Automatic annotation (TrEMBL):
Alphabetical list of InterPro entries matching this protein: Surf1/Shy1, Surf1/Surf4
Localisation per UniProt entry: Cell membrane; Membrane
Protein known as: SURF1-like protein
Similarity field: Belongs to the SURF1 family.
Biological source species: Duganella margarita
Bilayer disposition of the protein: Multi-pass membrane protein
CDD domains xrefs: SURF1
This protein's GO CC annotations: plasma membrane
Residues annotated as transmembrane: 219-237
Main localization category: membrane
Length: 243
């Protein structure tokens, strides 16, 4: 029996398309993995760096993301915003966001003060918590936003004490009229002088990077491309064998 390869145009075109798609998607997943690896390095550098002191000068969000932050000023007590659907250890609750006026300036920064439980019997009942009076000093970590959850429809304008799915600093600035830095500070240690805000939980979830997941997906797409080539070759020899 003599084996001979028999070229078929339609299987060849289909194989080329599958290989091209697999390589393209594999490369996309590799790029996402590399971006996450770069973010890992940025997180490590941010933790090791000296805390950045906010003095009211406008800053670019990308320049300070994941940096440790120190800032002194006062909370804007009459503009809290509550992010809904933020569970913690199996309990329903909110993230409390509050503008913070930076001392010696008219600039504000949006502070994620912590997590608060929600009343399971009355969904729109606001939790009770304390806010420090006067000038305090906060420490935390700068983030581009306070996290996003799935939201249907158009987000309505923000108002004080609003319960919303998502809110970002620029939206708070627009609806409150406050001058705002374009990033959020996740508050860490209690404010100094300390306020009675023990109700607020500051166990912030780390960013979900998933580098291994993207690398795994890339391998699967590359493997699909390789299998398509093998199938085309093997099938061509089977069709082309002569007796």
């Amino acid at each position: 029996m003599v084996m001979a390869f028999r070229f078929k145009l339609i299987p060849f075109v289909a194989t080329v398309l599958v290989v091209a798609l697999g390589i393209q998607l594999g490369n996309w997943q590799e790029r996402r993995a590399n971006d996450k690896i770069a973010l890992q390095h940025k997180l490590a550098q941010g933790v090791e760096a000296v805390p950045l002191v906010l003095d009211g000068a406008p800053l670019a969000a990308d320049a300070v993301a994941w940096r440790r932050i120190t800032v002194s000023g006062e909370f804007v007590r009459d503009w809290p915003v509550y992010l809904d659907n933020r569970p913690y250890q199996g309990r329903a609750g909110f993230y409390l966001l509050m503008p913070f006026k930076i001392a010696g300036s008219n600039m504000h920064v949006l502070v994620a003060r912590g997590w608060l439980p929600r009343d399971p019997a009355v969904r729109d009942k606001l939790p009770v918590y304390a806010t420090p009076d006067g000038t305090v000093t906060l420490q935390g970590v700068a983030r581009l936003n306070a996290g996003h959850v799935m939201e249907l429809g158009t987000t309505p304008p923000l108002t004080p004490n609003a319960i919303v799915q998502n809110a970002d600093p620029l939206q708070v600035a627009k609806d409150s009229g406050l001058t705002m830095q374009p990033f959020v500070v996740e508050q860490g240690m209690p404010a100094q002088p300390a306020g009675d805000d023990a109700q607020l939980v500051r166990d912030w979830p780390p960013p979900s990077l998933g580098v291994e997941k993207h690398q795994g997906y890339a391998f699967q797409w590359y493997a699909l491309s390789a299998m398509a080539v093998i199938f085309f070759v093997v099938n061509g020899f089977r069709r082309g064998k002569s007796k």
